[in-house]
Structure formats: structure tokens, C-alpha cells
Design brief:
Layout lengths: L1 H41 L3 H37 L3 H29 L3 H4 L4 H16 L1 H16 L4 H25 L1 H26 L15 H32 L4 H37 L3 H37 L3 H14 L3 H16 L4 H26 L1 H25 L2 H11 L1
Length: 448
């Protein structure tokens, strides 16, 4: 029995690895784009960096809706493919694309309408307002393309194709460098927004083509009828609504954190922005492994094997913890060099290094929270994890930040973040180990 389990475990670990590596590279390329923007804008001075940092949490907030819609439809694709129902998978793809266009158009209108006032609402200094507004406006105009990129990348990943999204998103980095080099010297902060927007537009069209034309499983067949199916929409709403609520709660808490940090001045805002950017390179492997976990768990449940789904979840969580721990150690050593690359301001560098090194202690448990959430999403267990995330970030992080910021400044906010990430990791680990959805999801799928 032990030999059999061992012989089964090695191929399962190998499959997690093979799916995770391209997904990790996809996530890392998106962070490299942030590094590129930060480095190129950082050379313009602390005010330019703070202008982007001021609205960054708001961009994450609205992007959360994009991510939630993608989760609602892509998990269904994974279940159908796992069960061998490719026609049903393609029907989900079509419903998701139409729903994504409608949602992204609404997000575009919201973003454009608030772009002029948002930096002032967030308490930004007068010198930051014009650049922050312009950057957020350009960001908002790209929502339809971000949604198509997110949806089609998720569809391809859930079909088992991790390589194509990775290659295309790596190409996005090259385009970002090219467009930034053209536009930043002429337009400054606005140029950074234009460069990233153009790179997003080009790659989103490529991902759309790869999914809907080239994919042997997901490509759209004109001869296949696709009447409106409210069942698909209901399941997407069931899966995606808790994810959206989680993203809103977490990102709105980050907006509140920005409000807490804004009165500390330009140096604190810029240091916080750079520290967040640098730390993101550590947690992107977790999101890549989480994407692989969603795929593997979803396909296993679609195939009716809950035990295999749980095993893939456990392997993924362990793998994610190890990868992010290693990334945290490396970043602790090299972060002074990273900040030297991102900004010439000595005060910003020093403060960013101090706060980031405190937070890196939480990377192992932060990894657990990210990967466990991805595995639970594949099992359609999104409500309880979302509630746990909400309670953790609002009660622990915001509560501690308000208590500590007065005496410790930006360091107090990052101490609160460190404690909260550890709490969140423990809560999600408990949920991942006790969830019954790994064994009930297939029954619900068949009935649907």
C-alpha cells in the first residue's frame, strides 16, 4: 500500500510542478511589468512614484471584479473538461466572454467617471493629483482588454494549457519596456500608463485568438448552437460573487490603508508603493501555484475523484509554502539592491527596506493562504474562504494599523500587515483541510 501511494505521489507532484511553472512565470511577468514601470517612473522622482502608488490600491479594487468573473466561469470549464464534456466547456467560454464584455464596459465607465476626483478623495497632496488622475484614467480605459486577457488566460489554464498564456504574458513585458521607453520621456507618469495599456491591448488580442481560434478544446465552433443558459450564469454567480466580495473587501481595506498612509507624506507613500512592488515578486509564485491548484482540483472533481482533488490541494499548498519561503529569503537579502534599481531617493530606499524585511517573515503562511484559496476555488468552495479573508484583513490588519500608525508610522502599518498575513494563512489552512467540497462538488456538477 505504501509503495503504491509513493508511486502515485511522484507523478502527482510532477504534474503540479509542470502546471505550476508556466503559471508562476505568467504571474512573475506581470510583476516584472510593475518593476519596469516603477523603475522608469522612479527616475522621475519621488512625486512621480507616489502619484502611481496613491491610486494603485484603487486599480486593484476594480481589477478584483475582473478576476472574480474569470473565476466564476473558468472553474466550470475545468469541471467540464475533467468530465470529458468539451462542448459544454465551450458554451461556458461563450457565456463568459459576453458577460466579461458587459462587466468591463461598466468598470470602464466607473473608472473614467471617478478618475478626476479619486486622488483627492484618497488624501493625496496637491502635487500628486494631476499625474494620479491621468494614470488612473488610462488604466480604466483598458478594462475590456484586461477582462479578455484574464478570462482567456484562465480558460487556457483550466484546459491544462499553461504554456501559451505564459509566453504571451512574457511578451507583454517586452512590449511594456518598448512602449514605456517611447512614452515616459515625453509624458512622464501618463506615459507609463499609456505604455502598459498598449502592451495589455496587444497581448489580450493574442490570448483571445489562442483561446477561441487555436485551442483544440476551447475554440469557438460556429455550427455549435449556444442559447442563453441561465444555469451557467447562476453557477458563475455562485462561484464568483464570494470571490468578488473578497476582492472588494480586501482591496477596499488596502484603500483604507492608503488613507492611513497618505498623511505620513510623500516619502512614506513612495516607500510603501515600492515595498509592495518588491514584495509582489515573492508572492507571485503562490498565485501561479494557486492557478495550477484550481485547474487540478477542478478537473479531478469534474472526473468524480474527490480524493485525488484533495491530494492535489495538499501537494500544491506544500509546494507553494516552500517556493514563497525561498523567495522571501532571497528578497530579504537583495531588497536594498532592488530599491536602488527602482528609485534614486535615499530616504525612500531606506524606509522601504525596513518595512519589507519585517513583512517577509510572513511569506510561508501567506503562501498557504494564496494556494489554499486557489484549491478551494477549484472545489467551488468560495464563500467561507472569502469570509475568512474579509475578517482577517479588516479586523486584524486595519485594526492594528490604526493602533500602530500614530507611534510607528509606516512601520506600524507593515507590522499590522505581517501579523494579519500569518493569521490569514492559518485560517485558510484549517479551511482547506476541513472542507467537504472536494467530495460534494462532483455531485453538484452532475446535477447541474
Amino acid at each position: 500500500m505504501l509503495i503504491n501511494r509513493h508511486s502515485e505521489l511522484l507523478p502527482q507532484i510532477s504534474r503540479v510542478w509542470k502546471l505550476s511553472v508556466p503559471a508562476i512565470l505568467t504571474q512573475i511577468t506581470s510583476i516584472v511589468m510593475q518593476y519596469i514601470d516603477s523603475a522608469m517612473v522612479g527616475n522621475l522622482g519621488a512625486n512621480a512614484s507616489a502619484s502611481i502608488g496613491l491610486v494603485s490600491t484603487s486599480t486593484w479594487l476594480l481589477s478584483g471584479f475582473v478576476y472574480a468573473l474569470s473565476a466564476g466561469f473558468s472553474v466550470q470549464v475545468a469541471h467540464h473538461i475533467g468530465a470529458g464534456r468539451e462542448t459544454e466547456a465551450r458554451r461556458v467560454v461563450k457565456h463568459g466572454l459576453l458577460s466579461g464584455l458587459l462587466l468591463s464596459a461598466l468598470l470602464l465607465l466607473i473608472g473614467v467617471s471617478i478618475s478626476g476626483s479619486l486622488p483627492r478623495w484618497l488624501g493625496g497632496e496637491e502635487a500628486l493629483l494631476a499625474d494620479s488622475s491621468a494614470y488612473f484614467l488610462v488604466f480604466s480605459l483598458t478594462f475590456p482588454f484586461m477582462q479578455m486577457n484574464s478570462l482567456c488566460s484562465s480558460y487556457l489554464q483550466c484546459s491544462g494549457n499553461m504554456v501559451t498564456p505564459s509566453i504571451l504574458n512574457a511578451a507583454m513585458c517586452g512590449l511594456d519596456v518598448l512602449f514605456n521607453a517611447i512614452f515616459i520621456p515625453k509624458y512622464g507618469v501618463l506615459g507609463a500608463g499609456i505604455g502598459t495599456a498598449l502592451a495589455t491591448v496587444v497581448i489580450s488580442l493574442g490570448v483571445l485568438w489562442a483561446c477561441c481560434v487555436r485551442s483544440p478544446v476551447l475554440r469557438i465552433h460556429r455550427q455549435e448552437p449556444c442559447p442563453m443558459d441561465t444555469g451557467i450564469l447562476r453557477r458563475a454567480l455562485k462561484i464568483g460573487t464570494p470571490v468578488a466580495a473578497q476582492e472588494i473587501a480586501m482591496c477596499s481595506a488596502m484603500v483604507v490603508s492608503t488613507l492611513i498612509i497618505a498623511p505620513l507624506g510623500t516619502v512614506a507613500i513612495a516607500a510603501n508603493s515600492f515595498a509592495v512592488t518588491a514584495e509582489s515578486l515573492c508572492y507571485m509564485p503562490g498565485y501561479g501555484i494557486g492557478s495550477a491548484a484550481t485547474t487540478l482540483v477542478g478537473q479531478s472533481i469534474g472526473a468524480g475523484d474527490g480524493q485525488l482533488a484533495k491530494r492535489y490541494a495538499n501537494i500544491s499548498v506544500a509546494f507553494g509554502g516552500a517556493m514563497m519561503s525561498l523567495a522571501g529569503i532571497v528578497m530579504w537579502l537583495i531588497c536594498p539592491l532592488v530599491f536602488r534599481m527602482l528609485t534614486p531617493d535615499l530616504a525612500v530606499r531606506a524606509l522601504a527596506t525596513q518595512v519589507l524585511r519585517m513583512e517577509l517573515l510572513a511569506e510561508p503562511l501567506y503562501a498557504v493562504s494564496i494556494v489554499a484559496s486557489g484549491a478551494l476555488r477549484g472545489a467551488e468552495d468560495t464563500l467561507i474562504p472569502s469570509i475568512l479573508n474579509l475578517l482577517s484583513i479588516w479586523v486584524v490588519r486595519i485594526g492594528l494599523s490604526l493602533l500602530l500608525v500614530g507611534s510607528l508610522g509606516l512601520k506600524g502599518v507593515w507590522i499590522a500587515m505581517t501579523v494579519e498575513l500569518c493569521v490569514r494563512g492559518l485560517l485558510l489552512l484549517i479551511r482547506q483541510q476541513t472542507s467537504k467540497h472536494y467530495y460534494s462538488g462532483h455531485t453538484e456538477q452532475v446535477e447541474a
